[in-house]
Amino acid sequence: MSELDAPVPMLDLSSQFESLAPEWLASIRETGAAGSFILGPNVRAFEEEAARFTGVRHAVGVANGTDALLLSLRALEIGPGDEVITTPWTFFASAEVISLVGATPVFVDIDADSFNLDVHQVEAAITGKTRAIMPVHIFGNPVDMTTVQALAQRHGLEIIEDCAQAFGASWGGGRVGSFGAAGCYSFYPTKVLGGYGDGGLVTTNSDELVEKLRRLRNHGATAPFMHDTLGYNSRLDEIQAALLRIKLRDVNAIFAARRQVAAAYDAGLADLEVITPPRPQGGEHVFNLYTIRSDRRDQIRAALTEARIGSAICYPLPLHLQDVYASLGHRPGDLPVCERLADEVLSLPIYPEMTEAQVARVCEVVRAALSQV
Questions:
Q1: pLDDT for 277 beyond 90
Q2: Domain of residue 162, CATH code
Q3: CA of 259: how far to CAs of 20, 190, 195, 279, 319, in Å?
Q4: Which structural domain, as residue segments, surrounds residue 362?
Q5: Are 299 and 310 in the same domain?
Q6: Strand partners, 68
Q7: Among 6, 212, 273, 302, which one is most buried in terms of CB atoms within 10 A?
Q8: Per-residue pLDDT tens for 37-64?
Q9: Beta bridge pairs of residue 130
Q10: How far apart are CA 160 and CA 154, in angstroms?
């Protein structure tokens, strides 16, 4: 089978694993020989390296990206009676954690070009109960943090950045995760910087907050068997940290490869009736996903599926219309931009090892799908 006919997966981790396996497996053997599996030297080293990379003073490894958000809310003492403004166009965890601490998510519509929170609608959603803004750098595209910071400062609000899909993205010369009280990352395998299992990180410049986060991730412990608060069992695994250290060392090459794939898509789809992702004027996109828009989305996806090419719809139903948030009283039409995009968006395969021939094949199938009456 030639590459022109071979399946194109949405994500291919196998070739990446083959290249990293010798060094990672060696680190696993070292970890086993040392007998240090929890909060060991790899976790501490990765925290220091990730903090330097993101341009903050501190980083705290946790079990996953959801916990990164949850622990940040807890550390900031956000809870019952409080409101947190966020986007309805995101993975459920972003809003879920707000509800889990007893606070209320307040959904603001998105910008049609960036897919991010429409920062110009945020101020109208602020009330006396608002404690924080949670911008989500969706698909690897940075939110306009200049505007978010100005709003937060003017109204005395905290910023919790959801950077789950955007490790390494930047705005105004600074990395995402460095603009608010806390930056929250996921290292799920599909992410720009992904592990081979679950993992997460919180970044912060606050000495007070980092100490709270360290206690919260380890059952609220101040010392062995001594606890001053109810916490969680949420520790980044030593073996995942070892892998993340290896990948972090060459992460700029990962960014470059993803941007190269995105540029190839831009060129291959340029003359078609699809809207390709615009680049942020004030920052740098890292393309965790490459998401197009088309009013013939379902036709395109059917053609890709028939050609054994992966794709994904992120997200088919905005959070404000999902059953879990029926109590908030939203109705169809309340947030029209994200509701419209739910019927138009399609994410195409993208990963650093993707070849030019694979991108060309995806574009050709999209072209053929759109040529059909």
A1: yes
A2: 3.40.640.10
A3: 21, 16, 20, 11, 29
A4: 251-371
A5: yes
A6: none
A7: 212
A8: 999 999 999 999 999 999 999 999 999 9
A9: 83
A10: 16
